[in-house]
């Protein structure tokens, strides 16, 4: 099926209105990297670092991590790789960490909360990343930031790690970008200053949607109950895009929905111009984007909203079908 898309692999994801959407890929293993060329992705928009921690029975060593991250950067041939720091939770327990008995693990001690409370692992990981970059550009993203202070504290850890590496005589990255994932609704309402300070944001739609609708992403009974193209959720995403536009903060979307063509089309239409997805989705998403006019899609969305629709899906689907004729 992927062969259908090879003819557009090296073409931009340019819609008929002229707007270009940057399509990036999500990865988590060294084995994912060959897909960077195969899929035509513009870069790695999300590199999930937890897999290396989950597949072992002891904490990986800094030197092992650094070697792996260096190989990832080598394989990317200068394309940007967004390394997300360890995103473990009490549901994703490392076999060598004391388990936590929490009543609501998704709302519990996870991701950046662990990183800030027990900074040893995060410091080790930041050092490994700086060493892996070995003077090249480095992009780091913190998961599950719920308030500005958490981002500031995490950023301070990066500054400390840079200073330590400098003293040790290791080359520092020529360019360092520090961003955050927006996956809790609270962060969308952070003070203006947060949007000014953060260098980029990536919307983690899997978590953001589960918290927006209060519907557990792991619970089969409720997880598909609320449509991503629900007017409430799209309006919320639009608000985030608007705040980012006001502060010139680059924003992308990296949840699973970015890889669903109709969802991706709507995200692009409301102004999300960087989408990160599994490599196999890049072809289908690009193919649809190239057939559509984002300004028209935006009109369709607005009309459906004004007409009081619960979701814009059927209206957008109707538009998409009309583009085939
Ligand atoms: C997300 O929450 O949308 C996301 C990309 O992160 P993960 O799926 O790893 O939680
Ligand atoms: Mg998440």
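^ structure tokens above, recovered residues below v
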């Amino acid at each position: 099926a992927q062969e259908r898309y090879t003819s557009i692999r090296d073409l931009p994801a340019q819609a008929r209105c002229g707007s270009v959407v940057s399509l990036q890929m999500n990865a988590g293993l060294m084995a994912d990297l060959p897909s960077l060329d195969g899929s035509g992705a513009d870069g790695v928009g999300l590199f999930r670092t937890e897999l290396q921690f989950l597949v072992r029975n002891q904490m990986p060593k800094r030197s092992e991590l650094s070697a792996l991250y260096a190989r990832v950067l080598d394989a990317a041939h200068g394309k940007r790789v967004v390394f997300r720091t360890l995103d473990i939770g009490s549901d994703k327990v490392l076999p060598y960490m004391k388990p936590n008995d929490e009543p609501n693990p998704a709302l519990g001690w996870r991701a950046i909360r662990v990183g800030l409370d027990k900074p040893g692992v995060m410091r080790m990981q930041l050092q490994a990343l700086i060493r892996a970059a070995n003077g090249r550009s480095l992009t780091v993203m913190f998961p599950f930031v719920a308030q500005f202070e958490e981002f500031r504290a995490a950023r301070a850890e990066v500054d400390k790690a840079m200073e330590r590496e400098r003293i040790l005589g290791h080359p520092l990255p020529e360019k360092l970008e520090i961003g955050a994932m927006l996956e809790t609704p609270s962060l969308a309402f952070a003070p203006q200053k947060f949007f000014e300070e953060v260098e980029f944001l990536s919307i983690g739609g899997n978590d953001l949607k589960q918290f927006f609708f209060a519907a557990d992403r792991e619970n089969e009974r409720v997880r598909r109950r609320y449509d991503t193209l629900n007017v409430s959720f799209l309006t919320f995403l639009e608000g985030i895009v608007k705040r980012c536009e006001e502060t010139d903060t680059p924003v992308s979307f990296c949840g699973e929905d970015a890889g669903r063509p109709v969802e991706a089309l709507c995200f692009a239409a409301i102004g999300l111009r960087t989408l990160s997805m599994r490599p196999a989705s890049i072809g289908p998403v690009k193919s649809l984007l190239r057939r559509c006019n984002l300004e028209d899609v935006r009109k369709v969305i607005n009309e459906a909203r004004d007409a009081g629709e619960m979701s814009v899906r059927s209206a957008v689907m109707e538009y998409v079908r009309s583009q085939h004729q």
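The two ends are 22 Å apart (CA to CA).
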